[in-house]
Amino acid sequence: MGCFHSKTAHLHSPEDPPAALPDSKNPDPGNADDVVEQELEVPAFKEYSLSELRRATNEFSTVNIVSESGEKAPNVVYRGKLENSRLVAVKRFSKLSWPDAQQFMTEAAGVGKVRHKRMVNLIGCCAEGDERLLVAEYMPNDTLSKHLFHWDKQPLPWEMRVRVGYHVAQALDHCSMENRKIYHDLNAYRILFDEDGDPRLSSFGLMKNSRDGKSYSTNLAYTPPEFLRTGRVIPESVIYSYGTVLLDLLSGKHIPPSHALDLIRGKNVLLLMDSSLEGQYANDDATKFVELASKCLQFEARERPDIKFLLSAVAPLQKQKEVASHVLMGLTKNTAVLPTMLSPLGKACARMDLTSVHDILLKTGYKDEEGAENELSFQEWTQQVQDILNTKKFGDIAFRDKDFKNAIEYYSKLVVMMSVPSATVFARRAFSYLMNDQAELALRDAMQAQVCIPDWPTAFYLQALALSKLGMDTDAQDMLNDGAAFEAKRSNSWRG
Fold first, then answer.
1. pLDDT tens-digit map of 414-424
2. What does the pLDDT look like over 371-422, one tens digit per residue?
3. Is 185 a catalytic site residue?
4. Which burial class, exposed, middle or buried, applies to 10 when counting CB atoms under 10 A from its CB (0-12, 13-18, 19+)?
5. Residue 266, exposed/middle/buried by CB under 10 A (0-12, 13-18, 19+)?
């Protein structure tokens, strides 16, 4: 089965303008950054090719796996980087999850329209052959599960737990207003933290998990009673699952709802509370939070509150609205701004536009090396020198023709033959390695180029490219900054 193009005319075109995140009907005063958040834009939903997503995830490398489900719902989420350098999360379903590709595309396109600042927004999908893939925004600060149950530095503070409850309620309220009242398997793994530390609800939960409509893959103890009875999910089932999330937030551990309700009825609320939160909350606030969880976990679906009630109940429990989420969580916010590049090469490397990088390296040739006009300053004409020049010529021809495998072979011979190393040869071989998916070798050669010419911006930019391919984005950013700094230094010296 091939890629579906004619059947997806209803999908947004990649050329469509980006979709702005809708403002909440009730603007949240919880964060000082709200005004900025509302101005953020999300790319328009589009259909990606399988080759694009293979490149983005380095052929679905296990190194890029950020989460995977068990045997009941065999699907994996990968971290990926698109060619425009945007980081994404790519969910790869099992081959049997969506046999009908058109149904998958239609479902994904519908979910892709549900945009909100409290959601991890869906930005694309792919259905080629047996592959079924979803593409969403990438959240760099892990899941609620990680911060609650597997924390390294500090437990999640009380105020942040309240904020999670409120943000998730906002997201569910928006989904409800968009007539998406069913959210499948709401749990701590479905809540992620963005670059600002703000909690967001994954859009993946708006998709059915498989062809048989199974909506819960977690422990049966946490599954809504009506689903166990009928195998069907109703809007009130989502409220029940929200209640289990509130239990997680209160206790900092997995407590089966039946056990939690027994503690609540027995007035043993303190036994329910996470001991690490002692002294962080008022008893009245904790009691209200517990009561809210209890209401959500009622056995009869009709006795559970609606989402509007949840919003109104959680909102007043927030007491530190002005404190940014990353501050509450003790996260270091990445405020690095890409420098203004002074050369087309720097800009191309920042965008990871490999076609432009190749064109620029071709046009630049060897002019950045001293004596380039004398063919690398070879001092005497001998047969050995003639062999070196021929090897260089064949390497340059292969590089020009994008025959990167042969370019590597000729340049490797040249490196051994030359008495004086050439930064340009190392740079060209580095790029050739990149085009052959050998990022570590590319990084090594780019570093060798820097050894040859210590202040050569090209060497830094190529290192940035290789580091990005290896997923080392912070180091790549540093290399881009260093390259730009040397670019500026050169420019100033020329002006002087």
1. 888 888 888 99
2. 444 444 444 456 777 888 888 999 899 999 999 999 999 999 988 888 888 8
3. yes
4. exposed
5. exposed
- Note the pLDDT tens digit of each residue in 121-154: 999 999 999 999 999 999 999 999 999 998 878 8
pLDDT digits (tens, 9 = 90+) for 308-337: 999 999 999 999 998 999 999 988 765 444
| Catalytic residue (choose from 28, 173, 185, 198) | 185
